[in-house]
Amino acid sequence: MRIGKSVRLERFVNRNTNRTIIVPVDHGISIGPVEGLIDMKETVNQIAEGGASAVLMHKGLVRCGHRTRGQDIGLIIHLSASTDLSPTPNAKTLVTSVEEALKHGADAVSVHINLGDELERHMLKEAGEAAEKAADWGVPFLAMVYGRGPKIKNSFDPHIVAHCARVGMELGADIVKVPYTGDPDSFVKVVEGCCIPVVIAGGPKLDSERAFIQMAYDSVQAGGAGLSVGRNIFQHRAIRELVSALHAVVHDDATVDEALAMIPRPQ
After folding, report:
1. How many structural domains does the chain have?
2. What does the DSSP assignment read for 111-144?
3. Catalytic positions, please?
4. Model confidence pTM above 0.90
5. Residue-wise pLDDT tens digits, 217-239
6. Dist. CA 110–CA 45, nearest whole Å
7. What is the CATH number of the domain that holds 29?
């Protein structure tokens, strides 16, 4: 690995634990300006103060979230996109380049691939090419890989998730993001089949803080490398405190009860 890539990786992967907490805030292109993504400076500030490793966003949002003050945080720029208004919302396409991401100050780049979609071949091609370009520049590459398509009945099926992780690895990713399989025993198999760090997605907004933190705890105990979670963080009533609790779980091996005690109860 080039020294430049190592330096950039250590900006958002803890060098002592080899784990990370990434908070994607790239949802605006997909679903519009939802709650939590209006005042970007405040949202990013709370995420950073809580101890997250990086935020992940599209290039145009960098100017909205750059604070010029407060605690620093890593920046991952997302290269691919689609909208929920499209007749093919699962078909992601590249909307910027590694070089453009570097111009915006990126520490890493990411792409999204939906295996099983009718346009899977295009996503695989573009992801492979982006991985090569990122390697040329010494830029860490994160692949978000999900099973979504007509032949896939359950995106959380352990065999599907393991296949997703393996695809990201074999395309040249440095980190791969996949759904959590629902239990540690099955997630162990996902991690074992992938020689790069595996982080979990948060999925739909959860109503239970305990369920969310339990998922984070179980995933790292099963060998996962942390989290890449958006709505369950940026739409929480206490972003800073929730991220601090997750930091304790991911980096300090805190228990679920210890982490929950760090989050203030609703008034």
Report:
1. 1
2. EEEEETSTTHHHHHHHHHHHHHHHHHHT--EEEE
3. 146, 177
4. yes
5. 999 999 999 999 999 999 999 99
6. 22
7. 3.20.20.70
